[in-house]
Amino acid sequence: MPETEIRLGVVGTGYVGLTTGACFAHMGHRVVCGDIDQRKVDLLNDGHIPIVEDGLEQIVNDARGVGRLEFVLGSQAAATDADIVFLCVPTPQGDDGSADLSYIQQAAREIAPILKPGAVVVNKSTVPVGSTVAVERELQRDDVFVVSNPEFLREGTAVRDFLQPDRVVIGSADRGAAEKVAELYDSIDTPIIITDPASAETIKYAANGFLAMKISFVNAVAAMCEAVGADVAAVVDGIGSDTRIGGQFLKPGPGWGGSCFPKDSRALVKIAEEHGYNFSMMKGVIDVNTEQRGRMIDKVAKAVGRHHSNLSGVTVGAMGLTFKAGTDDLRESPAMAIIADLRRAGARVRAFDPTTCGELSPHQESTLDGIELTKELIDVADGADVICVFTEWPEFAKVDLDQVAARAGAGTTVVDMRNLFDPFAVKSAGLGYDGVGRN
Ligand SMILES: NC(=O)C1=CN([C@@H]2O[C@H](COP(=O)(O)OP(=O)(O)OC[C@H]3O[C@@H](n4cnc5c(N)ncnc54)[C@H](O)[C@@H]3O)[C@@H](O)[C@H]2O)C=CC1
Ligand SMILES: O=C(O)[C@H]1O[C@H](OP(=O)(O)OP(=O)(O)OC[C@H]2O[C@@H](n3ccc(=O)[nH]c3=O)[C@H](O)[C@@H]2O)[C@H](O)[C@@H](O)[C@@H]1O
């Protein structure tokens, strides 16, 4: 890997900031990552990775070992001396559905006085169209440049996605600044798309919106499969084999969740609305997702022979809590949303997730109140009237179904929201089975 003289600052050490900093250091750059969360900075300086992310610990430790990666408190300490500063702070959903830019604006204000002349500030956070200009306005510096470089990594495969991206998108009004950022990716073999800031910002939302649309589409098709007696797996195989459609992101489930699709799909609708366009298709994509959660709750109610509004006395065994496998992230998890509704209807929920059976991460602590956590997967079967598979953790598929039936009682239904189990195997163990789009 080539050692370069370019110094990078990264503001925010969450899923995106930590991955960005560690991967750029791995690629040969010198990186200083700053966060306002003292606990996170301390953990990182003690060699602990605060999130579950495959392969991240290794590259963080390797880069720190050769002195290319440092963790400091605050944005200024990260940006001092940096030639290029990446803003990787949250852009949560505001009250009206639009993206809340206050963290970005705050970070920009913090670093404005200490930026080196000629420095490039990069919006890596997902920000609405016009945010490059908004950051320029906060900085009030005509000797620095602002560039958009949206990130497309997924949680769980963040390191791989960052180091082997399908493309890198850079948006800038200044060609030289765009090329400076592009050079950082020189060691990666991938197309680099340089465009204007508004297009780069739109690409990010359009990509997430399109992926959410694929999943909503397949969930709607799954509902149809149940109605007409078709098998969604065969249908997905049949349509996904058409290269114009592609087989990826067509797994039916309890609806899409996570820290990005929900907020970004709403922000996309809002951005369009603010510019005079009614993005009705995206609204439909969101509606189908809401319906999908309702359909899952109806499946649970049907499994125990009750109406979904009255589940008092019902014990639900929950397999998985995170918004998908491979992450510890509970933000906007379909499991958490469905569990909240089941609990509101009076159900008791006992749950196991591989990321909640040890010490809880800060994200998790605040959200798990009222859910009884078990130490082992099999324990969720104890006394369960219904068992829900919320997350597709591969190890769940290896559970001993005879033991599940013994602990829960024969006839208990498994509502398999991820189509993880073989229905025949579940039924052979004496359990009931209900999947998504399967008959
Ligand atoms: N999580 C994901 O998979 C992806 C997220 N994104 C976008 O990236 C952005 C960041 O997302 P995450 O990394 O998930 O957020 P996160 O919440 O995991 O991390 C953000 C970090 O920024 C820190 N922070 C906030 N203000 C700060 C400041 N002024 N100075 C220093 N640190 C500060 C917070 O303490 C936190 O550690 C969002 O816009 C998100 O939409 C984009 C692609 C993927
Ligand atoms: O902007 C972001 O934050 C990121 O959002 C998503 O990444 P992520 O949220 O980590 O997770 P995904 O793997 O996309 O899954 C999102 C949700 O869709 C669900 N999903 C995904 C794929 C599928 O076929 N079916 C399905 O139900 C998942 O279970 C999960 O709830 C995008 O995939 C990333 O490209 C993007 O960078």
Strand arrangement across the biggest beta sheet: 3-2-1-4-5-6
The molecules bound to the chains, other than polymers, are: 1,4-dihydronicotinamide adenine dinucleotide, uridine-5'-diphosphate-glucuronic acid
| Helical fraction | 40-55%
**Span between N and C termini?**
53 Å
Overall geometry comes to: globular
The total count of strands amounts to 14
H-E order: EHEHHEHEHEHEHEHEHHHHEHEHEEHEHE
Tally of helical segments: 16
Q: In terms of structural class, how would the helical and strand content be classed?
A: alpha/beta
The top-level CATH class of the largest domain is Alpha Beta
Uncertain residue ranges:
none
Proportion of residues in β-strands: 5-15%
Domain count:
2
Predict the CATH topology of the largest domain.
Rossmann fold
Radius of gyration: 23 Å
In the CATH classification, which architecture of the largest domain applies?
3-Layer(aba) Sandwich
User: What would CATH call the homologous superfamily of the largest domain?
Assistant: NAD(P)-binding Rossmann-like Domain
Sheet having the most strands: 6 strands, parallel
Mean pLDDT: 96
EC number: 1.1.1.22
Pfam family, one: UDPG_MGDP_dh
GO molecular function, one term: UDP-glucose 6-dehydrogenase activity
Catalytic activity: UDP-alpha-D-glucose + 2 NAD(+) + H2O = UDP-alpha-D-glucuronate + 2 NADH + 3 H(+)
